[in-house]
Specification:
single chain, alpha+beta, 12 helices, 4 strands, about 65% helix, elongated
């Protein structure tokens, strides 16, 4: 009887321990899910606001009324900004795991991987189908320019005295380099000339606005890079399930960076490797999508059918190799790096 009582207590304690352990794991999964969803929601709303602000500024013509809130463009902006956002959310969640290293990190890491892949594979195609209206915003013709201002059009300067249905009356000041050292420039009176107003390369409708708010080359390059990657993603999504899954290998490569959360006993070093590797993966895929690897892939055409297969699936193979290298490196770090973590002041 005494033995039965002891066994009962032992089973009860073991059962309670398993319940507590399950709750401990579920808490980690729930917290990571909430953090991931909050980043998605807040980042998407912020991206929609930025897109709307960008459209408001680039569409503004000096002398006309500015519309500060455009609901349709805000919604289009959220759809357009969501896919690039998914490139960076895993990195931010991984940096959080580096800062708060616990034994539950494996469950949090698994949660990040499942959510990121699910959102990328299933939600991005939905955004692709709904974002065509937003994509057309970049090709929208500019508003008609207002009169009473000097503007540089077609390499010459015009003072617009009248603008009606793209026909202008203006004074034209020729910007002739041969007359730079002369006291004046040639002036011509323009009457009823049809002038086609076009946006500049940054999308500004009004040259006066574009001259003052032209973005820096670095910012413009980053923006153009992310936008071109998004267009490639939408193109792959529209090309069928196989192409979309092959393109999604970029997300697998980005999630493989999670193997580096234990790459060093110093938290700052681990954070550096996660940041550096994520940017490198995005940069390599950007270079491939913009045909910077074309000389290399052309060489593969003359090397046999096996290498032609590699060329046709180059991005997929590249991302798979990156993923394998990162997982192997992370496993070796887990085995050989001691767990006496430093850098608690981060």
């Amino acid at each position: 009887m005494e033995i039965l009582r002891k066994e009962s207590w032992k089973l009860l304690i073991d059962f309670m321990f398993k319940i507590c352990y399950s709750i401990w794991i579920m808490k980690s999964i729930i917290l990571e899910t909430v953090g991931f969803l909050l980043m998605c929601v807040c980042g998407t709303i912020f991206g929609g606001l930025l897109f709307m602000l960008y459209n408001v500024i680039t569409s503004y013509v000096i002398g006309s009324q500015m519309n500060y809130f455009l609901p349709n463009i805000f919604l289009d902006g959220m759809l357009i900004c969501f896919p690039p956002l998914l490139f960076f959310i895993p990195m931010l969640r991984l940096l959080s795991l580096v800062r708060h290293k616990t034994k539950k990190n494996i469950f949090a890491l698994a949660t990040i991987c499942v959510l990121s892949l699910a959102f990328w594979i299933f939600l991005v195609p939905i955004c692709e189908k709904a974002a065509h209206a937003g994509d057309a915003l970049f090709e929208k013709p500019p508003s008609e320019l207002t009169e009473g201002y000097f503007r540089k059009l077609d390499s010459d300067t015009y003072y617009l005295s009248s603008v009606k249905n793209k026909y202008i009356d203006a004074l034209k000041f020729e910007n002739d380099d041969s007359q730079k050292n002369q006291a004046g420039r040639k002036v011509e009176l323009v009457k009823d000339r049809r002038m086609v107003f076009e946006r500049d390369k940054y999308g500004f409708s009004d040259p006066l606005v574009g001259e003052r708010l032209q973005p820096s080359k670095i910012f413009a390059a980053i923006f153009q890079g992310l936008y071109s990657m998004e267009k490639s993603a939408f193109s792959a999504c529209a090309s069928g399930l196989k192409n979309w899954l092959f393109f999604s290998s970029i997300m697998v490569a980005l999630l493989s960076v999670g193997a580096l959360i234990n790459s060093s006993s110093w938290r700052l070093v681990s954070a550096f490797w996660i940041l550096f590797t994520t940017i490198t993966i995005i940069a390599l895929n950007f270079l491939y999508m913009n045909f910077y690897f074309a000389p290399l892939t052309r060489q593969l055409d003359s090397m046999g059918s096996f290498f032609i297969m590699i060329k046709n699936n180059f991005q997929f193979i590249m991302n798979c190799i990156i993923s394998a290298v990162l997982i192997i490196a992370g496993t070796l770090c887990k085995i050989f790096v001691k767990n006496n973590f430093r850098g608690d002041d981060l």
